Amino acid sequence: MKPIQVGLLGIGVVGSGTFNVLKRNQEEIKRRAGRGIEITQVADLNVARARELVGPGVSVVDDARAVIANPDIDIVIELIGGYGVAKTLVLEAIAAGKHVVTANKALLAVHGTEIFAAASAKGVMVAFEAAVAGGIPIIKALREGLTANSIQWIAGIINGTTNFILSEMRDKGLDFAVVLKQAQALGYAEADPTFDIEGVDAAHKATIMSAIAFGIPVQFDKAYVEGITKLGAADIKYAEQLGYRIKLLGITKRTPKGIELRVHPCLIPAKRLIANVEGAMNAVMVQGDAVGTTLYYGKGAGSEPTASAVIADLVDITRLHTADPKQRVPHLAFQPNAMSDLPVMAMGEVITSYYLRLRVADETGVLAKVTGILADAGISIDAVLQREADEIGTEASAGLPQVPQTDVIILTHDCLEADMNAAIGKMQALPTVLEPITRIRKEELA
Predict the structure, then answer these.
(1) Cβ(250)–Cβ(209) under 8 Å?
(2) Domain 138-299 class?
(3) Residue positions annotated with a catalytic role
(4) How many CB atoms within 10 Å of residue 140?
(5) What would the pLDDT profile of 63-87 be if each residue is shown by its tens digit?
(6) Are 319 and 311 in contact (CB under 8 A)?
(7) Which CATH superfamily hosts domain 350-442?
(8) Rg (Cα) of the chain, in Å, rounded?
(9) Residues near 47 by Cβ (< 8 Å), separated by ≥ 6?
């Protein structure tokens, strides 16, 4: 049988990895797919570099539309990234009757509903295993392997940059800004790391997983997103003393009121496997009603790990290329006419527990006032840790007497986020609370 022909848009880190792995393992991949898979045309603005990477026998052009217009191309791989031209090219490829493979989580999280609808109308597939957690096959697990389950929640370390930073902060006792510079020097963080450190990248991925797990449209605009920039070395240390580790988690959860969709730092019990995922690695926990808790671990980025997921999508499409479109696995796991209208909840409606750190004047009655505010809000305290007082010299430098200060760390039981917000507002207004209160949510993941 004639090999299926693939056009590649963008031959950067992931594109070159895809080309190399597909070439290296072509015989084994053919045995799995039942048909050869060949990248026969590449589009990249740097034509000379692209030709050097692919060698003879592969057409190289600088216009992605030439690949889409090529009647011999069956599948288009989009590895350009971003929301702009990538969306236009993906929709044009679909309109031309091409199947699409993409690693573009931002595109799917924001425009996935439109893209999947266009693909369904045209009878083509859009595959995106590489868009979430790199080489970990979490999309296939959610969409196919766990199809018998009612998914209850997902919690994942799905951004390697932030996990590397938090691991280094814990291991070396350094503050965020210092470790970020190290991560940039080592290539773990971009020159502009905003999408990573502010949680946006993780939120794109969590949005996609949420849609597949619960059969809802992709709704990135409704996700709660909080990054790691405000975390200090002190919080990492105190969490350790209390038996927890801090990780940036993407969480989506089914509740009686709707779907939670949130990304933020979390305290996780140190005994949980996911709490021990270090460096730039990724891990995703999934709780299903039948299977219980499952954990998926591996490299979440990189040339060949991501290429592994891209090629898995190529094999899937090759197997199903001639199948009736109605018999294929739906893009978001559920049949398009059976999607749910469950709402994505506002963050104020979420119920969870909390870690609070308050820098306070070391005076009699301060702790009583703080705990009184929590009690009035109906918030139950699980544990309290108080440091010995130390001397902070900022006021002395202004000609004022030094004030004995201490850190009070409080762990709470579950409560409504809106109630916690109100309580923090009242605690912050106390004259004996000297700095902005640090609040980190706590997830037991039991």
Answers:
(1) yes
(2) alpha beta
(3) 205
(4) 17
(5) 999 999 999 999 999 999 998 999 9
(6) no
(7) ACT domain (3.30.70.260)
(8) 25
(9) 60, 61, 62
